[in-house]
Design goal:
The chain is α/β, with parallel strands linked by helices and 393 residues long. The chain has 15 helices and 13 strands. The strands form four sheets. The chain has a seven-stranded mixed sheet, with helices on both faces. A two-stranded parallel sheet has the order 1-12. A two-stranded antiparallel sheet has the order 5-6. Bound molecules: 4'-deoxy-4'-aminopyridoxal-5'-phosphate.
Length: 393
Amino acid sequence: MFSKLTAQAPDKIIALIAQYAADPRGDKVDMGVGVYKDAQGRTPIIRAIKTAEQRHWEAETTKTYKALIGDGVFISGMRGLVLGDVAADRVAGAQSVGGTGAIYTLLDLVRTIEPQARVWMSDPTWPNHAAIIGHLGLASRSYRYFDAETREVDFEAMRADLAGAGPGDVILLHGCCHNPTGANLTLAQWEEITDMALAQGFLPFVDFAYQGFGDGLEADAAGVRAMASRVPQMLIATSCSKNFGLYRDRIGAAMVLCETPATAALARGTMETLNRVHFSFPPDHGAALVASVLSDPALRADWVAELEGMRLRMLSLRTGLADALRREANDDRFDFIARHRGMFSRLGASPAQVERLRAEHGIYMVGDSRMNIAGLPEDRLDHLARAFVSVGL
Ligand code: PMP
Protein backbone atom coordinates (compact mmCIF):
# COMPACT_ATOMS: atom_id res chain seq x y z
CA MET A 1 0.00 0.00 0.00
CA PHE A 2 2.61 2.55 1.03
CA SER A 3 4.64 2.16 -2.13
CA LYS A 4 1.88 4.18 -3.79
CA LEU A 5 2.99 7.22 -1.81
CA THR A 6 4.68 10.02 -3.70
CA ALA A 7 7.52 12.14 -2.34
CA GLN A 8 6.30 15.38 -0.75
CA ALA A 9 7.95 18.66 -1.69
CA PRO A 10 10.00 19.76 1.32
CA ASP A 11 8.49 22.68 3.25
CA LYS A 12 10.44 25.71 2.04
CA ILE A 13 10.56 27.48 5.38
CA ILE A 14 11.72 24.37 7.22
CA ALA A 15 14.41 23.80 4.56
CA LEU A 16 15.51 27.42 5.05
CA ILE A 17 15.88 26.88 8.83
CA ALA A 18 18.24 23.94 8.15
CA GLN A 19 20.24 25.96 5.62
CA TYR A 20 20.58 28.84 8.11
CA ALA A 21 21.70 26.49 10.90
CA ALA A 22 24.41 25.04 8.65
CA ASP A 23 25.76 28.49 7.63
CA PRO A 24 29.05 29.09 9.52
CA ARG A 25 29.05 32.91 9.09
CA GLY A 26 28.97 34.70 12.45
CA ASP A 27 27.09 37.74 11.12
CA LYS A 28 24.26 35.84 9.39
CA VAL A 29 20.75 37.24 9.78
CA ASP A 30 17.65 35.03 10.15
CA MET A 31 14.48 36.66 8.85
CA GLY A 32 12.94 33.36 7.78
CA VAL A 33 10.79 31.42 10.18
CA GLY A 34 7.65 33.12 11.55
CA VAL A 35 8.33 33.29 15.27
CA TYR A 36 8.83 36.42 17.36
CA LYS A 37 12.39 37.02 18.51
CA ASP A 38 13.76 39.46 21.07
CA ALA A 39 16.91 41.58 20.66
CA GLN A 40 19.02 38.55 21.63
CA GLY A 41 17.36 36.40 18.98
CA ARG A 42 15.41 34.37 21.56
CA THR A 43 11.74 33.47 21.47
CA PRO A 44 10.87 34.05 25.13
CA ILE A 45 8.18 32.45 27.26
CA ILE A 46 5.78 35.27 28.21
CA ARG A 47 6.18 36.15 31.93
CA ALA A 48 2.47 35.84 32.73
CA ILE A 49 2.37 32.44 31.02
CA LYS A 50 5.32 31.24 33.11
CA THR A 51 3.56 32.37 36.30
CA ALA A 52 0.29 30.78 35.21
CA GLU A 53 2.18 27.60 34.42
CA GLN A 54 3.71 27.46 37.90
CA ARG A 55 0.32 28.05 39.55
CA HIS A 56 -1.25 25.45 37.29
CA TRP A 57 1.38 22.87 38.25
CA GLU A 58 0.67 23.48 41.92
CA ALA A 59 -3.12 23.49 41.62
CA GLU A 60 -3.75 20.70 39.12
CA THR A 61 -4.76 17.46 40.81
CA THR A 62 -5.78 15.30 37.87
CA LYS A 63 -5.13 14.83 34.18
CA THR A 64 -8.46 13.25 33.46
CA TYR A 65 -10.45 14.39 30.40
CA LYS A 66 -12.21 17.73 30.43
CA ALA A 67 -14.77 18.72 27.76
CA LEU A 68 -14.80 17.87 24.05
CA ILE A 69 -15.41 21.50 23.16
CA GLY A 70 -12.49 22.57 25.38
CA ASP A 71 -12.08 24.80 28.43
CA GLY A 72 -15.12 27.07 28.81
CA VAL A 73 -13.20 29.88 30.53
CA PHE A 74 -10.63 29.82 27.73
CA ILE A 75 -13.28 29.89 25.00
CA SER A 76 -15.24 32.78 26.49
CA GLY A 77 -11.99 34.64 27.27
CA MET A 78 -10.90 34.34 23.65
CA ARG A 79 -14.30 35.42 22.40
CA GLY A 80 -14.07 38.54 24.55
CA LEU A 81 -10.50 39.23 23.45
CA VAL A 82 -11.42 39.02 19.77
CA LEU A 83 -14.96 40.34 19.67
CA GLY A 84 -15.35 42.37 22.86
CA ASP A 85 -19.07 42.31 23.60
CA VAL A 86 -20.12 42.11 19.94
CA ALA A 87 -22.80 39.47 19.31
CA ALA A 88 -21.73 37.35 22.30
CA ASP A 89 -24.93 35.24 22.39
CA ARG A 90 -24.65 34.33 18.70
CA VAL A 91 -21.08 33.01 18.82
CA ALA A 92 -20.23 29.32 19.12
CA GLY A 93 -16.63 28.73 20.17
CA ALA A 94 -14.47 25.62 20.30
CA GLN A 95 -10.93 25.05 21.49
CA SER A 96 -8.58 24.00 18.71
CA VAL A 97 -5.08 22.70 18.11
CA GLY A 98 -3.40 26.02 17.30
CA GLY A 99 -4.71 28.49 14.76
CA THR A 100 -4.15 25.83 12.11
CA GLY A 101 -6.55 23.50 13.93
CA ALA A 102 -9.14 26.30 14.12
CA ILE A 103 -8.91 26.87 10.36
CA TYR A 104 -9.19 23.15 9.73
CA THR A 105 -12.21 22.71 12.01
CA LEU A 106 -14.05 25.68 10.52
CA LEU A 107 -13.43 24.61 6.94
CA ASP A 108 -14.47 21.07 7.85
CA LEU A 109 -17.66 22.56 9.29
CA VAL A 110 -18.24 24.38 5.98
CA ARG A 111 -17.61 21.17 4.06
CA THR A 112 -20.07 19.28 6.29
CA ILE A 113 -22.81 21.76 5.45
CA GLU A 114 -21.86 22.77 1.91
CA PRO A 115 -19.40 20.41 0.17
CA GLN A 116 -19.62 22.55 -2.98
CA ALA A 117 -18.48 25.71 -1.20
CA ARG A 118 -15.64 27.67 -2.76
CA VAL A 119 -13.02 29.23 -0.50
CA TRP A 120 -11.42 32.44 -1.72
CA MET A 121 -7.89 33.29 -0.60
CA SER A 122 -5.86 36.47 -0.95
CA ASP A 123 -3.05 36.36 -3.48
CA PRO A 124 -0.61 35.85 -1.83
CA THR A 125 -1.52 34.18 1.44
CA TRP A 126 -0.11 31.84 4.08
CA PRO A 127 0.62 28.66 2.05
CA ASN A 128 -1.12 26.41 4.57
CA HIS A 129 -4.47 27.95 3.63
CA ALA A 130 -4.34 26.40 0.17
CA ALA A 131 -2.96 23.15 1.60
CA ILE A 132 -5.84 22.76 4.07
CA ILE A 133 -8.51 23.72 1.54
CA GLY A 134 -7.06 21.24 -0.95
CA HIS A 135 -6.78 18.49 1.67
CA LEU A 136 -10.44 18.92 2.57
CA GLY A 137 -11.37 18.67 -1.10
CA LEU A 138 -12.97 22.12 -1.16
CA ALA A 139 -12.79 24.26 -4.27
CA SER A 140 -10.67 27.37 -4.07
CA ARG A 141 -10.39 30.72 -5.79
CA SER A 142 -8.03 33.57 -5.23
CA TYR A 143 -8.59 37.30 -5.16
CA ARG A 144 -5.99 39.94 -5.94
CA TYR A 145 -4.74 41.64 -2.80
CA PHE A 146 -1.20 42.99 -3.01
CA ASP A 147 0.13 45.67 -5.35
CA ALA A 148 3.70 44.55 -6.11
CA GLU A 149 4.61 48.07 -7.19
CA THR A 150 3.45 50.09 -4.17
CA ARG A 151 3.59 47.14 -1.72
CA GLU A 152 0.17 48.25 -0.43
CA VAL A 153 -3.22 46.55 -0.64
CA ASP A 154 -4.63 46.78 -4.17
CA PHE A 155 -8.14 47.37 -2.91
CA GLU A 156 -9.62 48.19 -6.30
CA ALA A 157 -8.51 44.79 -7.62
CA MET A 158 -9.64 42.98 -4.46
CA ARG A 159 -13.08 44.55 -4.69
CA ALA A 160 -13.35 43.78 -8.39
CA ASP A 161 -12.50 40.11 -7.81
CA LEU A 162 -14.81 39.73 -4.82
CA ALA A 163 -17.65 41.20 -6.87
CA GLY A 164 -17.87 37.69 -8.34
CA ALA A 165 -18.54 36.02 -4.95
CA GLY A 166 -21.98 35.09 -3.67
CA PRO A 167 -23.84 32.60 -1.48
CA GLY A 168 -21.79 29.40 -1.14
CA ASP A 169 -18.54 31.35 -1.27
CA VAL A 170 -16.28 31.67 1.77
CA ILE A 171 -13.95 34.67 1.74
CA LEU A 172 -10.81 34.13 3.79
CA LEU A 173 -9.42 37.39 5.18
CA HIS A 174 -6.45 38.06 7.45
CA GLY A 175 -7.72 39.85 10.56
CA CYS A 176 -4.57 41.97 10.85
CA CYS A 177 -0.83 41.67 10.12
CA HIS A 178 -1.25 39.99 6.73
CA ASN A 179 1.09 37.04 6.19
CA PRO A 180 3.23 37.26 4.05
CA THR A 181 2.87 40.87 2.87
CA GLY A 182 2.39 43.05 5.99
CA ALA A 183 -0.13 45.17 4.01
CA ASN A 184 -3.50 45.48 5.75
CA LEU A 185 -7.05 46.66 5.15
CA THR A 186 -8.12 49.98 6.64
CA LEU A 187 -11.23 50.11 8.80
CA ALA A 188 -13.08 51.78 5.92
CA GLN A 189 -12.10 48.86 3.66
CA TRP A 190 -13.35 46.36 6.26
CA GLU A 191 -16.66 48.22 6.19
CA GLU A 192 -16.74 47.97 2.39
CA ILE A 193 -16.09 44.22 2.43
CA THR A 194 -18.84 43.98 5.03
CA ASP A 195 -21.22 45.87 2.71
CA MET A 196 -20.33 43.40 -0.05
CA ALA A 197 -20.92 40.39 2.23
CA LEU A 198 -24.35 41.78 3.12
CA ALA A 199 -25.27 42.60 -0.48
CA GLN A 200 -23.82 39.47 -2.13
CA GLY A 201 -24.37 36.86 0.58
CA PHE A 202 -20.86 35.42 0.85
CA LEU A 203 -19.51 34.13 4.17
CA PRO A 204 -16.51 36.01 5.61
CA PHE A 205 -13.86 33.92 7.37
CA VAL A 206 -11.27 35.86 9.37
CA ASP A 207 -7.95 34.20 10.15
CA PHE A 208 -6.78 36.14 13.21
CA ALA A 209 -3.34 34.80 14.15
CA TYR A 210 -1.53 38.02 15.15
CA GLN A 211 -3.83 40.07 17.40
CA GLY A 212 -1.64 42.54 19.30
CA PHE A 213 1.26 42.47 16.82
CA GLY A 214 0.02 45.31 14.59
CA ASP A 215 -1.49 48.45 16.14
CA GLY A 216 -2.42 46.95 19.54
CA LEU A 217 -4.84 44.36 20.93
CA GLU A 218 -7.95 46.53 20.56
CA ALA A 219 -6.96 48.35 17.34
CA ASP A 220 -6.10 45.07 15.61
CA ALA A 221 -9.59 43.75 16.36
CA ALA A 222 -11.39 46.82 14.97
CA GLY A 223 -11.96 45.33 11.50
CA VAL A 224 -13.20 41.95 12.68
CA ARG A 225 -15.48 43.60 15.28
CA ALA A 226 -16.90 46.06 12.78
CA MET A 227 -17.71 43.16 10.49
CA ALA A 228 -19.12 40.94 13.25
CA SER A 229 -21.43 43.73 14.42
CA ARG A 230 -23.13 43.85 11.00
CA VAL A 231 -23.06 40.46 9.27
CA PRO A 232 -25.51 37.66 10.14
CA GLN A 233 -22.81 35.01 10.05
CA MET A 234 -19.04 34.66 9.86
CA LEU A 235 -16.17 32.41 10.87
CA ILE A 236 -13.12 33.38 12.96
CA ALA A 237 -9.97 31.32 13.60
CA THR A 238 -7.68 32.59 16.35
CA SER A 239 -4.27 31.44 17.49
CA CYS A 240 -2.45 31.82 20.82
CA SER A 241 0.87 30.87 19.21
CA LYS A 242 2.16 34.40 18.66
CA ASN A 243 0.48 36.74 21.13
CA PHE A 244 0.77 34.30 24.06
CA GLY A 245 4.01 32.80 22.74
CA LEU A 246 2.49 29.31 23.04
CA TYR A 247 3.67 28.01 19.67
CA ARG A 248 4.45 24.43 20.65
CA ASP A 249 1.57 24.05 23.07
CA ARG A 250 -0.79 24.23 20.07
CA ILE A 251 -3.66 26.34 21.28
CA GLY A 252 -6.26 28.36 19.41
CA ALA A 253 -10.00 28.85 19.13
CA ALA A 254 -12.55 28.40 16.35
CA MET A 255 -15.57 30.72 16.44
CA VAL A 256 -18.77 30.69 14.44
CA LEU A 257 -21.04 33.73 14.44
CA CYS A 258 -24.57 32.56 13.62
CA GLU A 259 -27.89 34.27 12.79
CA THR A 260 -29.46 33.26 16.11
CA PRO A 261 -28.40 31.84 19.49
CA ALA A 262 -30.25 28.62 18.57
CA THR A 263 -28.17 28.19 15.42
CA ALA A 264 -25.03 28.93 17.45
CA ALA A 265 -25.96 26.02 19.74
CA LEU A 266 -26.18 23.76 16.66
CA ALA A 267 -22.79 24.98 15.43
CA ARG A 268 -21.31 24.32 18.84
CA GLY A 269 -22.65 20.77 18.84
CA THR A 270 -21.20 20.09 15.39
CA MET A 271 -17.80 21.51 16.38
CA GLU A 272 -17.87 19.20 19.39
CA THR A 273 -18.42 16.29 17.02
CA LEU A 274 -15.61 17.54 14.74
CA ASN A 275 -13.24 17.76 17.73
CA ARG A 276 -14.25 14.19 18.58
CA VAL A 277 -13.25 12.83 15.20
CA HIS A 278 -10.19 15.05 14.74
CA PHE A 279 -8.52 14.41 18.10
CA SER A 280 -11.26 13.80 20.69
CA PHE A 281 -10.42 16.07 23.65
CA PRO A 282 -8.31 19.12 22.78
CA PRO A 283 -4.95 19.49 24.57
CA ASP A 284 -5.64 21.28 27.84
CA HIS A 285 -2.35 22.76 28.95
CA GLY A 286 -2.17 25.91 26.81
CA ALA A 287 -5.89 26.59 27.23
CA ALA A 288 -5.61 26.44 31.01
CA LEU A 289 -2.72 28.92 30.95
CA VAL A 290 -4.46 31.39 28.62
CA ALA A 291 -7.67 31.08 30.67
CA SER A 292 -5.85 32.07 33.83
CA VAL A 293 -3.93 34.92 32.19
CA LEU A 294 -7.14 36.34 30.73
CA SER A 295 -9.15 36.00 33.94
CA ASP A 296 -6.57 37.20 36.50
CA PRO A 297 -6.37 41.04 36.27
CA ALA A 298 -2.71 41.25 37.37
CA LEU A 299 -1.54 38.50 35.01
CA ARG A 300 -3.57 39.96 32.21
CA ALA A 301 -2.08 43.43 32.72
CA ASP A 302 1.43 41.99 32.72
CA TRP A 303 0.73 40.01 29.54
CA VAL A 304 -0.70 43.09 27.81
CA ALA A 305 2.39 45.11 28.80
CA GLU A 306 4.82 42.46 27.56
CA LEU A 307 2.92 41.99 24.29
CA GLU A 308 2.92 45.75 23.80
CA GLY A 309 6.70 45.77 24.28
CA MET A 310 7.05 43.11 21.56
CA ARG A 311 4.83 45.10 19.22
CA LEU A 312 6.71 48.34 19.81
CA ARG A 313 10.04 46.60 19.27
CA MET A 314 8.88 45.38 15.83
CA LEU A 315 7.57 48.83 15.02
CA SER A 316 10.86 50.51 15.89
CA LEU A 317 12.74 47.94 13.78
CA ARG A 318 10.41 48.83 10.91
CA THR A 319 11.05 52.56 11.19
CA GLY A 320 14.77 51.96 11.80
CA LEU A 321 15.14 49.88 8.64
CA ALA A 322 13.03 52.27 6.56
CA ASP A 323 15.19 55.18 7.79
CA ALA A 324 18.43 53.30 7.02
CA LEU A 325 17.13 52.49 3.54
CA ARG A 326 16.10 56.10 2.93
CA ARG A 327 19.67 57.17 3.74
CA GLU A 328 21.22 54.41 1.63
CA ALA A 329 18.90 54.66 -1.39
CA ASN A 330 18.50 58.41 -1.15
CA ASP A 331 14.75 58.18 -1.70
CA ASP A 332 11.63 56.93 0.04
CA ARG A 333 10.88 53.82 -2.00
CA PHE A 334 11.27 51.56 1.06
CA ASP A 335 8.95 53.57 3.32
CA PHE A 336 6.32 50.84 2.92
CA ILE A 337 8.32 48.85 5.50
CA ALA A 338 7.36 51.43 8.14
CA ARG A 339 3.75 51.49 6.96
CA HIS A 340 3.32 47.71 7.06
CA ARG A 341 2.20 46.07 10.30
CA GLY A 342 2.84 42.78 12.04
CA MET A 343 5.74 40.40 11.95
CA PHE A 344 6.15 40.30 8.16
CA SER A 345 6.79 42.51 5.18
CA ARG A 346 7.15 41.44 1.61
CA LEU A 347 10.24 43.22 0.39
CA GLY A 348 9.53 42.73 -3.31
CA ALA A 349 12.90 41.14 -4.16
CA SER A 350 13.12 38.65 -7.01
CA PRO A 351 14.09 35.03 -6.20
CA ALA A 352 17.54 35.78 -7.64
CA GLN A 353 17.94 38.81 -5.34
CA VAL A 354 16.78 36.76 -2.34
CA GLU A 355 19.42 34.17 -3.23
CA ARG A 356 22.13 36.85 -3.59
CA LEU A 357 21.21 38.29 -0.19
CA ARG A 358 21.69 34.81 1.29
CA ALA A 359 24.83 33.86 -0.61
CA GLU A 360 26.68 37.21 -0.54
CA HIS A 361 25.44 38.73 2.72
CA GLY A 362 24.19 35.85 4.90
CA ILE A 363 20.69 37.41 4.99
CA TYR A 364 17.99 34.73 5.06
CA MET A 365 14.40 35.35 4.05
CA VAL A 366 11.68 33.23 2.44
CA GLY A 367 11.93 32.91 -1.37
CA ASP A 368 8.97 35.25 -1.99
CA SER A 369 11.04 37.89 -0.06
CA ARG A 370 8.93 37.73 3.09
CA MET A 371 11.01 39.17 5.92
CA ASN A 372 10.41 38.41 9.58
CA ILE A 373 10.83 41.89 11.04
CA ALA A 374 11.51 40.47 14.53
CA GLY A 375 14.67 38.89 13.07
CA LEU A 376 16.24 42.25 12.15
CA PRO A 377 19.50 42.99 14.00
CA GLU A 378 18.81 46.41 15.54
CA ASP A 379 22.51 47.39 15.62
CA ARG A 380 23.16 46.49 11.97
CA LEU A 381 20.29 48.03 10.06
CA ASP A 382 22.72 50.10 7.95
CA HIS A 383 24.52 46.92 6.92
CA LEU A 384 21.22 45.42 5.84
CA ALA A 385 20.25 48.55 3.94
CA ARG A 386 23.55 48.49 2.05
CA ALA A 387 23.05 44.82 1.20
CA PHE A 388 19.49 45.43 -0.09
CA VAL A 389 20.61 48.28 -2.31
CA SER A 390 23.71 46.36 -3.48
CA VAL A 391 21.60 43.56 -4.96
CA GLY A 392 19.64 46.09 -7.00
CA LEU A 393 16.54 46.58 -4.87
N1 PMP B 1 -2.72 31.82 10.07
C1 PMP B 1 -1.65 32.50 9.69
C2 PMP B 1 -1.81 33.56 8.64
C3 PMP B 1 -0.41 32.23 10.24
O1 PMP B 1 0.66 32.92 9.84
C4 PMP B 1 -0.31 31.22 11.23
C5 PMP B 1 1.03 30.91 11.84
N2 PMP B 1 2.08 30.75 11.00
C6 PMP B 1 -1.46 30.54 11.60
C7 PMP B 1 -2.65 30.88 11.00
C8 PMP B 1 -1.54 29.45 12.61
O2 PMP B 1 -0.53 29.21 13.45
P1 PMP B 1 -0.57 28.10 14.58
O3 PMP B 1 -1.26 26.89 14.05
O4 PMP B 1 0.86 27.85 14.89
O5 PMP B 1 -1.32 28.69 15.73
